[in-house]
Amino acid sequence: MAQAKNHSRRHFMGGLAAAAGIGALAVAGQSKAGGMMEPSKNKVVYQLNKSDAAYILDILHSAATVLQHFNNDADIVIDCFGPGIWLLVKTEKNHHHYEKFIMEQVQSLSMYGVVFNACEQTLKTVKIDKASLIPEAKPVFSGAVDLIILQQKGYAYISW
């Protein structure tokens, strides 16, 4: 009788293992075929609309903290418009002349995948062309519209 219980238990456990293996293969197959999506990344969009150096450093530091917390598994966009656009304008066209440290932080965050969006509407208002943007800048039609679109895509919105 004890032998029958052990046989039933082994048969049950073997069946579970086989079912789990088949399930894992099915999930892997669907994932590769596009049937199932991988878990979404952490997504954040920051509104940067002031030219104050301390304000900018706070946002850059926050973005770096998010990257660190999620082990670089985060999609981060910093949307620059209004007076914040000056962060993305090359030095020769920029009357704000940010510290070298700030620009190094922008470059560093960009290397980790942080996207810096530059509002084209603000560029028109301040009469700056896209050629005057730093290489890390990505022009978008409108900073406000970009914030809406990114939130619709599931980005958490952070305003300072």
Properties at a glance:
160 residues; alpha/beta; 5 helices; 17% strand
Characterise this structure.
Helices cover 48% and strands 17% of the residues. It has 160 residues and is α/β, with parallel strands linked by helices. Strands 4-3-2-1-5 form a 5-stranded parallel sheet, with helices on both faces. Strand 1, helix 2 (53-69) and strand 2 (74-80) form a beta-alpha-beta unit. Helix 2 runs parallel beside helix 3.
What layout of secondary structure does this protein have?
Blueprint: H1 2-33, E1 42-48, H2 53-69, E2 74-80, H3 100-111, E3 115-119, H4 120-125, E4 137-140, H5 143-152, E5 156-159
Parallel strand pairs: 1-2, 1-5, 2-3, 3-4
- If you compute it from the alpha carbons, what radius of gyration comes out, rounded to the nearest whole angstrom? 24 Å
Low-confidence sequence ranges: 6-39
Distance between the termini: 71 Å
* Class derived from helix and strand content: alpha/beta
User: Would you count the extended β strands for me?
Assistant: 5
The biggest beta sheet is recorded as:
5 strands, parallel
Q: So how many helices?
A: 5
Q: Give me the side-by-side strand order of the main sheet.
A: 4-3-2-1-5
Strand percentage lies at: 15-25%
